[in-house]
Amino acid sequence: MLSRSSVCRGAQRALRRQCAQPVQRRGLAAPASGSFQYQTGDAKGVKFASRDLAGPTTTLALVSRAGTRYQLLPGLTEGLEKFAFRGTERRSALRIVRESELLGAELTSYHTRENLVIGAKFLRDDLPYYVELLSEVAAQTKYAPHIFHEEVLPLIQMSHKTFLANTKAMAISSAHSLAFHRGLGSPVSPASSTPYTKYLDTDYIEYFSKFAYAKPNFAVVANGAEHSELSKWVNEFFGNVPAQAPENLLEAVRDKQTKYYGGEERIAHGSGNSMVLAFPGSSSFTGGFYKPEVAVLASLLGGQSSIKWSSGFSLLAKVASGAGTSVETKSAIYSDAGLLYVSINGAAQNVAKTAMDAVKIIHNIAGGQISKEDIKKAKATAKFRELEFGQDINAGLELTGSGLVHGSKAYQLDETAKAIDGVTDDQVKAAAKSLLENKASVSAVGDLFVLPYAEDLGLKV
Amino acid sequence: MSQPSVAKFVMKRPWLNSWMKPLANWYTNAAGYRQLGLRADDLIPEESEKVLLALKRLPPKEAYDRVFRMRRAFQCSISHQLLPKEEQTKPEDDIPYLTPIIEEIEAEIKEREDLEAMVVKKRTARS
């Protein structure tokens, strides 16, 4: 039987130790400071989230699950994005612009493969004005044919041209379409003129807007706004958006599990050379196919240095041959699938040589010829990237919004960081081995006489 | 520009309207454009920025019909003939199809001018 006083003393000591610990324990990887935590709420069916960062400005965004993955016809997402802030039933485009200029605000709209984001940055006091503006954009935009022809279409044509001039974007887009075919594989910006010559039309865009801006399909996210304020204004202004999409077309597209296919595509291009070697990657943390070792492998292959005056520790940075040749490894993460890709840019000879070396390096990692030190560095970089990305306001808004729309919680930053910490060396090697065993998606854009085939690289397609 | 008109003024006053209506009907008929198959809005002078823009904004079908009516009218005019009765514009078909677009453009221009001439006052209290 323990004496009472001894238990007490032990308990006191334990308590003291516990109290003292958190301060010491907090290092780079402890994002538990609560800065990433969004408060969430529901206002008459509209989901919203906010976090009150101290500061004089607010970033507000409407995140809709209407990225190119979910578009019903090619180019609809692009059209809808370009129609944002183009004049509503209540005020003209000019008025929106002038008023925002007077308030000193910034309006943005962009789309990714999965989300359409319409947002604004402004001074804290102007929250009601912008919540109202976003609700107007969602519910009352006028999809007038003359606005489409005079303002929207030239922008779409421009993004088409920019896309065609950028070999890297073309290669990445082509790799995505090889990997996922439809859905996630559909190009982010129009890859040909068919979307706007054949499919795009104000009626279709308006119809699609009823899907994109239906209450279950979007969330309003604010950074630097009081939760009670946001809740009040969302309640007041978002009453008139449609409660349901007109048909459940979108659900059919959405519930389909993305499948990985793989293959090879070669596109001749006169100005620039790019190659993308893509492999099945990791889905987002909530997606069910989450593999933290893919993130580590991506930063181990790397290519871009994060440190000044040094090519960095990453393996590809060392082999990137020739000036002006850039290599980059990315783990593109989507809600239910992912793509790990190495993109190489530069002169044709260098691109070909670097691609050969990249495959050789993957072979080396799979074969275990890799130092523990390098994997440790890669883990640290991967964790830092993950946390930093989550802290970035714009990325955070989109992640949180899409997390809300998908019905799950906000992006699980703490847990992804923890998962990366738990990756072992063997897991990384196994991941590299599985890259070589699975079918790859290889895309070459540029001088096809020089750029190698996947077969020459020794990849399965 | 849209055509100057006292129609609104007249139509607001029923007594004046009932008095003017037969006169107006006689006048439009006597103007002779309906006998050539045209509509009143086809007669708006094209040589101004606003009307040119409005013509660009016409839906394709309307634009095609407008050109058709004009060519038919030219043809009639050259050959010194009127259209047969059943092809002439009926009063109920003589609708303003271009005027609303021109008015919209005028409103846009006016809004722009108003915004340019705006005097900005600084907010006094920040809540």
Automatic annotation (TrEMBL), chain A:
Membrane topology per record: Peripheral membrane protein
Peptidase M16 N-terminal domain sequence ranges: 54-181
Superkingdom as given in the UniProt entry: Eukaryota
Pfam families in the cross-refs: Peptidase_M16 (PF00675), Peptidase_M16_C (PF05193)
Gene Ontology CC terms: mitochondrial inner membrane
Keywords of this entry: Electron transport, Hydrolase, Membrane, Mitochondrion, Mitochondrion inner membrane, Respiratory chain, Transit peptide, Transport
Keyword Membrane carried by entry: yes
Record-linked Gene3D superfamilies: Metalloenzyme, LuxS/M16 peptidase-like
Record's subcellular location: Mitochondrion inner membrane
Domain Peptidase M16 C-terminal: 212-380
Gene Ontology MF annotations: hydrolase activity; metal ion binding
Record-stated family: Belongs to the peptidase M16 family. UQCRC2/QCR2 subfamily.
UniProt protein name: Cytochrome b-c1 complex subunit 2, mitochondrial
Organism: Glonium stellatum
From TrEMBL, chain B:
Compartments (UniProt record): Mitochondrion inner membrane
InterPro entries: QCR7, QCR7_sf
Keyword Glycoprotein found: no
Topological category with respect to the lipid bilayer: Peripheral membrane protein
Gene Ontology BP terms: mitochondrial electron transport, ubiquinol to cytochrome c
A GO cellular component annotation in the UniProt record: mitochondrial inner membrane
Protein's UniProt name: Cytochrome b-c1 complex subunit 7
